[in-house]
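Re: the 259-residue chain
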Amino acid sequence: MSSIDNTKITYSVGDLVYDANIYDGMNTHLNDLPFYKRWMPKNKNAAILELCCGTGRLTLPLAKDGYNISGVDFTASMLAQASRKAVEEGLDITFIEADIRTLDLSRQYDLIFIPFNSIHHLYKNEDLFQAFQRVKKHLKEGGLFLLDCFNPNIRFIVEGEKKQQKIAQYTTSDGREVLIKQAMHYEHETQINRIEWHYHINGVFDSIQNLDMRMYFPQALDTYLRWNGFNIIHKFGSFEEDIFDNDSVKQIFVCQKVP
């Protein structure tokens, strides 16, 4: 009987997915911003840290509202775009290029958050646990840790494996017409959804880019947070703070570290 040798399998996000203008053209929504604003400290001098900040989709409006926020991301091109936008808005934001699994900023924060399903790109438990330990190290006593991700939907994955589906069509700020079609295949052993985005640029097929995502199931993720020293104060199923239940699309956490 054979099994998957996980040491030889790689998971990734394609370079074109992280092309800053293509990313910004697709990710214009701010439906999560009111939720994160509700949980910001009342004292706007409090130190806020956003992990996996991308091009500053949330960082910039929070800074514009007067919050003392810094952003961390692993991708230099995304941070460069975020920095350019901050300068255009006249905002003074510190952006830091770092891996959240090994982050060491030698300071602590009043609130840390990982938005926009970013933990799905932490493919192994050890990756997730390392990131949680870095959050715990950088969080002040009594501070909050906020996190959002998908609630895995097996029916959606099964339908997605049957055929390609168009998921986006838009024009970037630098004038490219982008069409993205999605195909997926779920690995039951690793709980990783192998997602392929088929990019068509200016009417011509360009490339297939990976967007592999680890699925975190609800009871397991609750346990992982507790194992790593967090109390779950609230678990919501939507950014409107509906109670998490069987039909919830999202898993949204408000946590504090255990003293």
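The helical segments are 20-26, 33-38, 59-64, 76-88, 125-138, 154-162, 218-227.
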